[in-house]
Design goal:
Blueprint: H1 2-24, E1 31-34, H2 41-57, E2 63-65, H3 72-79, E3 87-92, H4 98-104, E4 116-126, E5 128-132, H5 140-149, E6 155-158, H6 167-176, E7 181-184, H7 188-196, E8 202-205, H8 207-216, E9 219-224, E10 250-258, H9 263-278, H10 280-288, E11 296-297, H11 298-319
Helix pairs in contact: 1-9, 2-9, 2-10
Keywords: Signal
Organism: Neoroseomonas marina
Signal peptide: 1-21
């Protein structure tokens, strides 16, 4: 009986300690790593999320842009960070495919997806194919015809090899039998700048970063990678409806922590993420940037993340080694 009482007391103490950890977190500033330079999709979503968390927690949540290697450097820095909840990652969908890309190219991955714990999804939009408004290309049919007529000459920018801006263009190239020139940059922001500066012919981007330039008339959207037409881009056809059923790709943005982060702390961050999704200022910022809020957490995010990761790994294996 005495032993059972001691065990029971230990369990109660452990539960109380976990509860205190959840209730007290955070007690100091956090860092939210974005594995790309400013201006890309993860940055566009991450900044209003961080601002909302600051309002909720009353502590600073600065964005740390840690670009390089298509996001692998920043992703790995969080995967290997102290698992206390004070270093978070605002990740893109490419997070799941980069370790497989390393293996395909004969390298040891700098991190693996199981080193990061998914907390909450904030947005998941299909990529949009855009060209400069000065381009004579106005439809996807014209785009494909032009690329076939000029093999190796139609160029597109991306956030790096195997990035979330590269893979959808590789999908289209494979599906339509195109030979296009891939010009990788260190992030979505620089890739977009290159298009606006006339250095490349096109770009596949999440809707958020390109929306202001579409509204201003600087860029023209001609196709999307969604299963259905994208809100705000209803006049733009999907590649699926144009006869390319395998061209489906979503740039999602989600919050992750190191996998060994205590469950009560993860729960605390997850609870705050729900408040973020309902925060009026966050919702206004997302609308202004052209991003659709798609909040999921717990099992719903786990399931979405697992299914998408499996699809992306298949794409990387088909893409193969990049010299």
């Amino acid at each position: 009986m005495k032993r059972r009482v001691l065990i029971g007391s230990a369990a109660v103490a452990a539960f109380a300690g976990a509860a205190r950890a959840q209730e007290s977190f955070p007690t100091r500033p956090l860092s939210m790593v974005v594995a790309f330079p400013p201006g890309g999709q993860a940055d566009v979503v991450g900044r209003p999320v961080a601002a909302a968390l600051e309002r909720i927690w009353r502590v600073a949540v600065p964005i740390v842009n840690r670009g390089g290697a298509a996001g692998a450097i920043g992703n790995a820095s969080v995967a290997r960070a102290t698992p206390d909840g004070y270093t978070l990652l605002m990740a893109l969908s490419s997070m799941a495919l980069l370790p497989e890309a390393a293996r395909v190219n004969g390298r040891e991955p700098t991190y693996t997806p199981d080193m990061l714990a998914p907390i909450a999804l904030f947005s998941a939009d299909p990529t949009v194919l855009v060209v400069p408004s000065a381009s004579p290309i106005r439809t996807i049919e014209q785009f494909i015809a032009d690329a076939k007529a000029r093999p190796g000459q139609v160029s597109y920018s991306s956030a790096g090899n195997y990035s979330a801006l590269h893979v959808p263009m590789a999908q289209l190239s494979q599906a339509a039998g195109l030979d296009m020139l891939h010009v990788p940059f260190q992030g979505g922001g620089p890739a977009l700048t290159a298009l606006l500066a006339g250095q490349v012919n096109c770009l596949a981007s999440g809707p958020g970063p390109i929306a202001p330039h579409v509204r201003s008339g600087a860029l023209r959207p001609i196709a999307t990678w969604g299963r259905t037409r994208l809100a705000g881009f209803e006049e733009v056809p999907t590649l699926i409806e144009k006869g390319f059923p395998d061209c489906e790709f979503y740039i999602w943005v989600g919050l992750f922590a190191p996998a060994a982060t205590p469950a009560p702390v993860i729960a605390r961050i997850r609870d705050a993420s729900r408040l973020v999704s309902a925060d009026p200022e966050f919702r206004r910022a997302m609308e202004a940037s052209g991003n659709t809020i798609d909040h999921r957490d717990g099992e719903a995010f786990q399931r979405f993340y697992g299914e998408d990761a499996a699809r992306l790994v298949r794409v990387v294996r088909a893409l193969g080694k990049i010299e």
